[in-house]
Amino acid sequence: EAGVTQSPTHLIKTRGQQATLRCSPISGHTSVYWYQQALGLGLQFLLWYDEGEERNRGNFPPRFSGRQFPNYSSELNVNALELEDSALYLCASSLGGTLHEQYFGPGTRLTVT
Amino acid sequence: RKEVEQDPGPFNVPEGATVAFNCTYSNSASQSFFWYRQDCRKEPKLLMSVYSSGNEDGRFTAQLNRASQYISLLIRDSKLSDSATYLCAVKDGGFQKLVFGTGTRLLVSP
Fold first, then answer.
1. Which of A28, A65, A108, B99 is least crowded, fewest Cβ atoms below 10 Å from its Cβ?
2. Do B11 and B19 form a contact (C-beta atoms < 8 A)?
3. Scanning every residue of chain B, which has its alpha carbon at the shortest distance from the alpha carbon of A47?
4. How far apart are CA A29 and CA B32, in angstroms?
């Protein structure tokens, strides 16, 4: 069974630009989560999508946004990039419901220069 | 106080040793608990879920103590390949987000 996939693996952007990161969940999983892992910091929850709807977001500014498509894949958009947005962005998926485990993709390493 | 706290380590142990990590959480309404393993610059991989009754998977044993609000991970007969950062994660009630500790680094030496 294929795991969570993310693209691109690496992304280099300039301050002020926009970045788009993509995630495909495990087949059968309807929930997608985005996390940020900045150097020296723990994983921080960004967004949760389920059945195409945004269900919850973490303490991040509105320039972090995303969506979930009918096939349950998801996109994270970061506008007006700042240097401190440089981090590993991890996508996870799970079955719908409240108690299921989350499985992570390999991440997209975003570097803002 | 952080929502989820872990001793960052590193824990340096010889091969074959038994090592235990604890993780404390502050939200008494937390419902689900997990241990993940993360290798350098890689994604976290689910090691095990932590159930109220405790659970064991080979050399790994996880326990939950709701009264004292901590979870533990015990690794027996440590292998070199166990060297990694171990993250505990707590699911925040109905909000589905996982709150992670900053991880405990384990180094197993020959």
1. A28
2. yes
3. B97
4. 18
